[in-house]
Amino acid sequence: xxxxxxxxxxxxxxxxxxxxxxxxxxxxxxxxxxxxxxxxxxxxxxxxxxxxxxxxxxxxxxxxxxxxxxxxxxxxxxxxxxxxxxxxxxxxxxxxxxxxxxxxxxxxxxxxxxxxxxxxxxxxxxxxxxxxxxxxxxxxxxxxxxxxxxxxxxxxxxxxxxxxxxxxxxxxxxxxxxxxxxxxxxxxxxxxxxxxxxxxxxxxxxxxxxxxxxxxxxxxxxxxxxxxxxxxxxxxxxxxxxxxxxxxxxxxxxxxxxxxxxxxxxxxxxxxxxxxxxxxxxxxxxxxxxxxxxxxxxxxxxxx
Length: 304
Fold this sequence. Notes:
alpha/beta, 13 helices
C-alpha cells in the first residue's frame, strides 16, 4: 500500500465541558478552524487528544463525531487507536476503517512493554488487520512510551506482516534514524515528522508532512516556514522556526497541555479544560498568558 500525507497534520485536542465530560459539539469548530488556517489533516485521539485519559466508549464517540463533521470536506482524518489494551486498539481500528478514516495510527503498549521488536510487530499486525483497507502508521514516541526499537528495523521487519503499513509518525529527534526511515525500501514509506520545534531540520532533509500539536493554534507560522523553505529562503524559514520555539517555550512554562487549550479558547475554539492527571490554569494565569502571548507577538503571527 502506498499512501502519503503532506503539509500540516494537526494533533487535535479532545474537547471537554467544564465538568470534564466530552463536548463533541466543539468538533465542528475545530475542523473549521483547521481548514481556515491551512491544515490538511486532523490526527485525532493521540497524545494531544489525551487518549490515555479517555474511556474506550469516549474514543469511539470522538471518532464518530470527527467523521461526521468532516464528511464531504477536504479535511482528512487520521485516527489514533493505540492503547495499553491491544483488544481495545483492534476494535477502535475496525471502527475507523468502517467509517472511512484516511488512516489509522498506533503507539506501542507502554505498561506491559513489548520486550522484542517481534512482539511490537505482533501488536501492530493484529491492530492493522482489523482495518484491512486502511493505511496504517506506527507512532514512534519513545519519550512517552519508553519503547525504543530502531525504526529502520521496524520498517524492514514489519513490511511482510502488515500489508497496510504506509509509514511512521516519527516523534523522535534522531535525525540519522529519520533519514534511514525515509530511504527505507527505496523511499516507499511516508515518515511524518512529529517535533514542531525542530520542523525545519526535518524539512531540510526532505520532510513533506508533519504532525504536531501547535499546528492547532499556530499553523500560519509553520505554513510560512514551509513556503520559505520551498523557495530557498532559509533566513525567513529560520525566523518562523524560532517563533515556534519561543511560543512552545512560553506555553511549556505554564504547563503545555493546559496552556495550549487555553490558547485555543483565545482563538475562538473552546476545547475546554484538560483532564487529570493534566492540570489547568487559573483565571489569573490565563489572563497573564494572554498578556505574554500578546507581548511575544503571537496574535499577529497567526493571522491568516
